[in-house]
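User: I'm preparing a small set of examples for a lab meeting where we compare how different chains pack in three dimensions. I only have the primary sequence for this one, and I'd like the structure in token form so I can line it up with the others. Please keep the answer compact; I'll paste it straight into my notes.
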Amino acid sequence: MQIKYIDGIRLQKAVHAGINHVINRKDYLNKINVFPVPDGDTGTNMAYTLSTIANEIKSTNQKPISKMAEAISDASLNGARGNSGSILAQFFVGFSEGSESYNKLNPKRFSKAIQVAKEYSYDALSEPKEGTILSVIKDWADSIHSLQKKHKDFITIFNGALEVAKESLKKTPEQLSVLKNSGVVDAGAQGFIDFLNGIKIYIEEGKLSKVKHGNVKNIKESAFTEIYDDYRYCTECLISGSDIDRPKLKKQLMNLGNSIVLAGSKKKAKVHIHTNEPQSIFTLCSEYGNITGEKADDMLKQQNTAHGEHGETAIIVDSGCDLPEHIIEQFNIHMVPLRFNFGDDHHVDKVTITSDEFWNELQTNPNHPQTSQPTPGDFQRQYQFLIGHYKNAISIHLPAAISGTLQSAKLAAKGNKELPIDLIDSENGSIGIGLIAMSAAEAIKKGYDKTKVLKKIDHAIKNTVVYIGLNTLDYIVKGGRVSPGKKKLANLFRINPILTFTKDGVKAKGKTYGSKNKIKKFINFVSSKIPSKNFRVGLAHGDDPEMEKIARAHFESLGAKEIISTKLGPALAVHAGPKSLIIALQNLT
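Assistant: Understood. Below is the structure token output for the 589-residue chain.
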């Protein structure tokens, strides 16, 4: 059998075959990921990038190869994740450009398109490094160019170039010392070889490849003891515009971080950068067009998850959960952020804006912030990352009655067959979810299996009550949770409503009267609800540390077994406002 040309349909089938093989190998790719950061997510990111392509082109029946290549290019930018995923996206953008307006590509035209793809791949990086996916792409593309001069059959050309690419992969440890010291090849380069191998298997056998995990026994664990912490956040966004000046943008990005990959065209560009200032990246990118798909993954958290010690069960919450950072780190709790915006100024909750900046904006910005739940894609990326590091997961979230967050998590979990995930409606919020998540994490640290952990969570939900004390009703009215009429009535009779979370949403729990000493009256009200002598307290304050000190001292005097306190996060703060206080009581009996 010989193949003299490829058109859009053949390209689509080949790409699907390559994608399937990479997805099958993602856990292995995660395990050998040491460059540029040993955060164990190269396989996850490449799989996510390629899965997006597969999903978006599966119903694309474009026979002209230029049209199919364009569809693949567009989908790759939409789904690009991580360093290698973004380079892959730029590779596909270059291939699309190189395919021009052709209906079919013969070997010579294909070689020219691949050369353009190679050049685009290098052009995407601010500081291209040899010994990475780039080296393998270059050697493979150059081999295609040489072989097509001698042969007119795609199978012969493809197989010959693949052998050259495999030799190039073997050389990556000699080009990057971190790979040699770790006893591995570059994970992104291996992913590209896996993509090509999937195509080869499909051509030879006419079917998609089966799982081949790879041998990881010889990886030197000592390679992962040094944590990369120059920059904390792997930050990405997609820019849509009419005339994006990518060279100018790339130059500006170089002052804000490293590992920069800028893929795309003048109309659509994907930005990837490691930085400590995610919001600065989003602000800069917004000058070039409309930005979407903002994300900022905590690489320190990822490195600790990938190479640190933890139980078999992962605990995931959304950022409607409030806990101090040291507790999140101590118990290795994973958080998927909500999003919010002040008008056109968009933020990733607890990532792209400091607490001081948020409270200042809340009180001075004429635009009251609007919150939005994480997308199913946000949860999908988190779940995919945890595959290979945990045997199962428990995902605890804001009540379905007040947020679509749990529904997003369900949609993501539904498509995830590799990591068993139990989804939990916390019937709670803020520090209340925090105490529930802590109960779960404590059970995992004690070595409980998942069944016992779930029983512990059920007990915690039934025995954790949150009380919300507001200094003013202004913010909850602006947020649409209370009508202006009810506020007017409450102010008239000097009523201070006390609210709580339930499975049916936010409800009234009680009230105090008078405008003086509101918080002390609120604390006394909550004190009357202490469930037993064996109780834990959670405090989340609306930017008022003195109020937190008063509440802490009060509950310490009443014999609380433990008091966990933190600032109120934006997810609830947009409704509660400054000088609010959230108190959670948890019966430990």
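A couple of notes for your slides: The CA atoms of residues 397 and 426 lie 6 Å apart. The first helix runs from residue 8 to 24.

User: Perfect, thanks.
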